[in-house]
Amino acid sequence: MFTIFRTTVRERRTSILAFTLGGMGLILLYVGLYPTIQSQISVMNSLLAAYPQGVLKAFNFSMDAFNTLEGYLSTENFGLIWPIMLMFLGVSLGAGAIAGEIDKGSMGLILAQPISRTKIFWEKYLAGVYVIGVFTILTVMSTPVFAKMFNLSFHFGRFAMLSVYGLLLGLSILSLSTLLSVMFSDKGRVNGIMAGVLVVMYVLKIVSGLKDSLINLKYGSFFYYFNSTDILQKGIYDHWSYLVFGLVIVITTGLALFIFQKRDISI
């Protein structure tokens, strides 16, 4: 039972450890630096005040970003660095699920096993879900622990909610990457397409904040639906994000399963 799931997770244990410890290490670093930032709040706010308001809006910065730990982390870590780590992990998992096995020449051995393609697909996909879940929960929810170590105040519920949104973002990327992985036999091609898609999404989010006439472009970006500033700093939760991410996950995963069941894979 679940041999493919266990094998996939075991093969990914190094990346799980590296990404998770790296993510937790960055958060510990930022949390440890925050007491120093607090002592320089007026200076930091003056620096932000010098930036054009359009730029601050485009990158989702607010004038009081450094007044709280949540605002500081949403700006310095969860606004860009952490999502990039999550995206690298999700794309790697999705691209490696099927296309990676074809690249390695191991897909023939997997398909030769007395199990259905449906079971192969779900065990591969759920292994990715497991890795995304471990990374997201351990990195985000370690923040309150580190904050406690430095006697900093924090909103536990906001970090818990951020982990939910982060999990949805990660699964959306994993699902889209998995769809491309069953469509193409080249892992590098999947990685390249996903890199292009995510860069375009980031550009759409930035451009939409620079000019009012382009504001609707934000709806085409995952970065809009994962808004760490609203979640952490303001405690605002956009419930439409659940629907958007949910639809992306269900539709792309369903298509990936259908294509994998029907596709003639050359091995």
Explained architecture:
The chain is mainly α. The chain has one domain (3-262). The protein contains 14 helices and no strands. The longest helix has 33 residues, at 117-149.
Set out the fold topology.
Layout: H1 3-11, H2 13-39, H3 41-50, H4 53-58, H5 69-76, H6 81-97, H7 99-104, H8 107-111, H9 117-149, H10 156-183, H11 187-208, H12 222-225, H13 228-234, H14 240-262
Helix pairs in contact: 1-9, 2-5, 2-9, 5-13, 6-9, 6-10, 6-11, 9-10, 10-11, 10-13, 10-14
What are the defining features of this structure?
267 residues, mainly alpha, 14 helices, 77% helix, 0% strand
The CA-CA distance between the termini, in Å, is: 25 Å
As a whole number of angstroms, the C-alpha radius of gyration is 20 Å
Q: Main sheet?
A: none
Helix content: over 70%
Query: Count of DSSP helices?
Result: 14
Helix/strand-derived category reads mainly alpha
Mean pLDDT: 88
Overall strand count: 0
Instruction: Please provide the ordered H/E string of secondary-structure elements.
Output: HHHHHHHHHHHHHH
Note the overall shape. Answer: globular
Query: In total, how many domains does the architecture comprise?
Result: 1
Strand content: under 5%
- Multimer state: single chain
Any low-confidence stretches, pLDDT <50, length ≥5? none
Short description:
The protein contains 14 helices and no strands.
